[in-house]
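Re-running the complex after MR caught last week's input typo. The corrected sequence lines follow. Everything else is unchanged.
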Amino acid sequence: MILKVKNLHKIYKNGTHALKGITFDVKEKEFLVIIGLSGSGKSTLLRCINRLIEPTSGTVEFLGKDITHVKGEELRKVKTQIGMVFQQFNLIKRRSVLTNVITGKLGQLKTFQSVFEKFPQEVYDEANKSLETVGIKEKALLRADSLSGGQQQRVAIARSLMQNPKLLLADEPVASLDPATSNSVMQYFEKINKELGTTVICNLHFLSLVRKYATRVIALKAGEIVYQGLPSEIDENWFRTIYGDEAEEVEIR
Amino acid sequence: MISNPELESHPVKIIRLNKEKENRISLIKAVLLDIFFVFYSILVLQRAIYYKFILDLKDLPFSWVNIGILFFISIVIGTTWALTKTSLSCKLFGIAKDNKTTKWTVEIFGWFLFNITFIAGWIITRLSLVDLFSSEGIQGAERIFGAIFKPEFGIFDDAIFAMIETIYIALLATLISIPPTLILSFFTARNLMKGNKFTFVIYNILRLIFNFVRSIEPLIWAIIFSVWVGIGPFAGMIALLVHTIASNAKLYSEAIENIEEGPVEAITATGANKIQVVWYAVVPQIVLPFLSFTIYRWDINVRMATIIGLVGGGGIGTMLIQYQGLARWHEVGLIVLLIAFVVWIMDYISAKIREAIY
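Corrected-run output:
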């Protein structure tokens, strides 16, 4: 098991009870997809795993070690091993693609090195290799915000690859992209999962993408797990349980 | 999934306790504010309206016993009123009962507060249309406007040099302010400092100091520094510098607070340390706003440097106050026109530069 989440609760300061006792395990090399409506707690769950948000109670075990309460330097070490990709890409808009990719390595670099932006040649080589993996090596010197949405997300993926992550979290990585681009971005996650053996946990909205890429699915509803199983097992009834009676499935290809 | 009843109740309890605590705090705030409202009303009624307007006294009687009694009365009325949960303050803090009495008191008392404040203001400023439009007044206006529109060009070159001095005072104050403001602004940005208790204390102390420094006008600072370093351009420059640092640190730190959180989150998630996060996720987002604020501040400082000259801060202001003291209105006219012209040009240039940056 690479990740064990036990009875996780998160209550925000305004009283919102976002996670209500989430328990699940993730095996190595899995492609786990989390589905659910907006506000069902998907993003909160991912952020509790890499401690961008502090869970209220419960535990998160990563590589056999309880990381729920680690602090300071130790927490940073944990974070360097978990990559994360966001819906809004979250690149530094005014800097080059290459610099953006290198920021993935910051956790392993010395502070003065990074402030004066004097990186060793290996770091540049590695950054170029990451860009090659996501197929946009030729854009390395352009400004990040001059790229299209799909390309920006690939830069974000390259950035997380710089961490050589054991676990890659993706928070609705294709929700701001058009269907065709969504598919191509998802293919890079698949490639990383299959070729590099990185475990992926991904929040998604579209069931067609879930069926295509997931090896296992967890469905959240109002902060609770309502379904765990294979993507092929999600039938009409499950779909209605997860998304409500009004819902109708939208296909994207 | 097996659910644990203890954990189930635990979060719900937290929510309920939070709600109760919030209500208690709101009630305390409401009591204090109601006491203030009542105390304020009584004071205005007694001093402005009764003593000053009805009795038309020149010297208002004052005794601590009187104030004490009024304050005691206010405490009693304010507290009782707030505890009935029908007061204006209860409405403001969202804990009022939703009934007719509340609606009635809120409307009547709200109007009452507004009206006595306006009337008291009228009495205190001795608002008088007679003074404004009396024949004597009109004559004075004619005299000064006549002179100003017939400026004396004999002092033109002196005025130009004084004006240049003013512009340089403003420029230097702005330039020197940049490095300290840059550094300090990071320590007064809430989003960077709220993380742990130690940094949050620093944040609060710095904010307090800046608020204090900023609340003292550059004019007052100039008076202080003209005693400290002697009358002249140097005193004016330091006065502007102090005020610029305090004001711009606030603007800069607001720019830091308004950055997109996304990149910060992303860089934090890679395991980068605090300095790296600031350098890569915060700094690139604030360079342009910082530049823009600084240029705008230069423009403001030129205007302020003029005013500071009036109290001996050097430059065109000092020249203006000298001719005003001699009642040489034609010279004053020239200086005023020159100031207006330069301020207009500065305003235009700074606006153009700021437009070009974005």
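None of the earlier attempt is carried over here. Chain B touches chain A at residues 1, 3-4, 7-8, 10-12, 14-15, 18-19, 260, 262-263, 265-273, 275-276, 279-281, 284-285, 287 (CB under 8 Å). The CA atoms of residues 172 and 217 of chain B lie 19 Å apart.
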